[in-house]
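Section 5.1 Outputs to date
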Amino acid sequence: MRSAYTFSVLRYLHDIVSGEFVNVGVALYAAETRFLGVACSSTYGRLSNFFGGIEGEHFKRMMRHISSGIEELADRLSAELPLEKGPYDVRGWVDQVWPPDDSSLQFSPVRGGITENPQATLEELYERFVERYARRVQPPSRADEDILKIFRDTLAQRQVLARLHPKKILTADYEHEFPLAWKNDVWHVSEALSFDLTTSGNILEKANQWLGRAHSLVASSESFKLYLLLGKPHQEKLRASFVKAENILHKMPCRHEFVGEDEAAKFAVAVEDELKRHSEER
């Protein structure tokens, strides 16, 4: 049986003034078949990727409230007598659960169509407006391993990679193993850090984590110098956050030096020269 339906997309509005939003759910109502359904995103991870600073538990509580509220209305609708008249469109239902206001979660204007299977149409709309959209706009990022590979490759080209080894720095309360290290009077340890992340919040949080790690490791009985092999963000809007991250990392109490990924070849030559000089001194 073909029947008319209306639907509304649930949006998370990060900034009401700018209008930035991400689709997080869909509600559909087919009056003739007495169908009311909702499909909502169950995670907030991608919102953090887009905007940062998302309070996860609060978001999940709101989504559970909307989903369970609409599902309760759907149960009530299916139990009512066919002669009982319900709301005109889907907004008449969802507004009972989540009334329009200036909160971060808002339902879009109503749209509609014709369907033979309301549940299948709901799933198709969710795929179209939520899942497919999420895949399309997901910003790229690189892991620490991606940055480390850049440096490993250049070190291998200079035939010095085999002379570098992992080194674990120990303190009474903490330890960390660095992937590439060599000793020349003191330990020279290096760590690759990708700041090619998706949000400003992620970039600054990572820098602060490493600042704390350096404070713990500086208590080691072994002297060391730390080389941070840094991958910059590709997104132009995140470059300022990367500068702030470098400022945070410069507060590390240990001897340290930053090496950008565009300086990988130069770094490999410097390591080669230092290893050669140390060998001659011995």
